[in-house]
Write a structure and sequence with these properties.
The protein is built from 13 helices and two strands. It is mainly α.
Length: 355
């Protein structure tokens, strides 16, 4: 007799099953990505050298990877916080733009004492990112408008505002490109003397530690999980649902805004149109790979930063297009997600009976 296949959710996958599924998915994803890169002309013998040796085992490559991981940690935490309460923040890049605008305003107008200018710019960037996501939360709570749509549209608005400023009052008159003048030294992170690494990387790690404490060692994490799984039940049990949703959402937007300021004050030192490109995809990938856990956000951010570092080398020396790099990254993500899906669900078969 023909049989019917159906999925049954496991009560508790267990750490061993979860770790094995994650590892298997990662290995399969990397193998498929390697096959894609070989198919477009990258020598197979050079893949290990570019993705491992040059990114982790050389001083310059490791410094570049660590520097790139800084803003990735912040946007990864931003996406992870929103996912914990099932708020789908698709406007990470817009919040980065808005935070960058706030940081640029402080730097170009020399707001406040010189010694406090960088901290002030970072604080305003965090506040700007939080402010920019707040209307999207209001639209969802009061009018039922999907945050996927509102945050995405808001992101486009932020980019248009940046263009307006770069082609207008903030444009460097001595440059033919739409960029601002270089930030003064007091609005830049101090270099650590190792490649392009700067003190902003330390700020990212501090943010990860704070997020870890709040989500893993305080009642906030328990409340957030309860709200994310069943907000109605959480409300009935007396949990501060509104406060948790508001706090986690604003923190999500604020961290993205802080990431925008980190890129400006850490490596770019001026505002340009290319600031937030690609960070939305990165934030989602990191949050999913890390399962919204702050500790694993750091690990996933470093791994993705290494892929970006190696990808830049592949684009320059092997003429690999940006689309192929993104395809390889997406292949790894999909492989891990599929493996994790089957760690949470088992397939069962039942025979169809006829009366």
């Amino acid at each position: 007799m023909p049989s019917t296949a159906y999925l049954m959710r496991r009560q508790e996958p267990g750490r061993l099953r979860t770790a094995l599924s994650y590892s298997i998915g990662l290995i399969i994803g990397l193998a498929l990505s390697a096959a894609i890169l070989v198919a477009v002309g990258v020598p197979a013998g050079d893949l290990v050298d570019e993705f491992l040796v040059e990114t982790f085992l050389t001083s310059d490559g490791l410094a570049q990877t660590v520097t790139a991981a800084g803003p990735l940690i912040l946007v990864g935490l931003s996406s992870a916080l929103a996912m914990r309460i099932r708020f789908w923040n698709i406007g990470v890049e817009g919040q980065m733009w808005f935070g960058a605008i706030a940081g640029t305003f402080v730097a170009l107008n020399h707001i406040g004492p010189a010694a406090l200018r960088l901290p002030l710019g970072l604080a305003l960037a965090f506040a700007a990112g939080a402010l920019f996501i707040w209307p999207c939360l209001v639209l969802k709570r009061r009018f039922g408008i999907s945050e996927v749509i509102s945050t995405l549209l808001a992101s486009n608005m932020a980019f248009l505002l940046v263009q307006h400023l770069l082609f207008g009052v903030w444009r460097d008159p001595a440059n033919s490109f739409p960029i601002t003048v270089e930030f003064p030294p007091e609005s830049q992170f101090a270099a650590l003397g190792w490649g392009q690494t700067h003190t902003g990387v330390i700020l990212s790690l501090v943010a990860a530690v704070v997020a870890w404490f709040l989500l893993e060692r305080s009642p906030v994490g328990y409340y957030a999980d309860a709200v994310g799984h069943n907000p109605a039940a959480a409300t009935e049990t007396g949990l501060p649902v509104k406060a948790i949703v508001l706090g986690m959402t604003l923190a999500s937007g604020g961290l993205s805004g802080l990431a925008g300021a980190l890129v400006l004050s850490g490596t770019e030192h001026r505002l340009s149109q290319a600031l937030g490109n690609g960070y939305l995809f990165s934030a989602i990938v990191i949050a999913y790979l890390a399962r919204s856990k702050p500790t694993w956000v750091v690990v996933a951010s470093i791994a993705l930063a290494a892929i970006y570092t190696a990808g830049n080398v592949l684009k320059v020396f092997y003429s690999v297009s940006e689309a192929v790099i993104v395809l390889a990254q997406g292949t790894v993500l999909m492989s891990i997600l599929i493996a994790q899906f089957f760690s949470h669900y088992s397939i069962h078969f039942s025979e169809n009976t006829r009366s």
